[in-house]
Amino acid sequence: MRTIIEPFRIKVVEPIRLTTLDERRALLAAAGHNLFAIHADDVIVDLLTDSGTSAMSAEQWGAVMRGDESYAGSPSFYRFEAAVRELMPFRHVIPTHQGRAAEAILFSIVGGPGKVIPSNTHFDTTRGNIEATGAEAVDLVVAAAHDPDDLSPFKGNIDLDRLERLLTEQGERVPLVMLTVTNNAGGGQPVSLANIRTAAAIAHRHGKPLIIDGCRFAENAWFIKCREPGQEGRSVKDIVRDMFDAADGMTMSAKKDAFANIGGWLAVNDDTLAAAARNRLILTEGFPTYGGLAGRDLDAIAAGLREIVDEQYLRYRVRTNEYIGEKLTALGVPIVRPVGGHAVFVDARRFLPHIPPLQYPGQSLAVALYEHGGIRACEIGTVMFGLRPDGTEVPAEMDLVRLAMPRRVYTQSHADYVVEVFEEVAKRRSELRGMRIVSQPRQLRHFTARFEPLS
Ligand SMILES: Cc1ncc(COP(=O)(O)O)c(C=O)c1O
Question: Is the CB–ligand 1 distance for residue 263 below 6 Å?
Answer without folding.
Answer: no
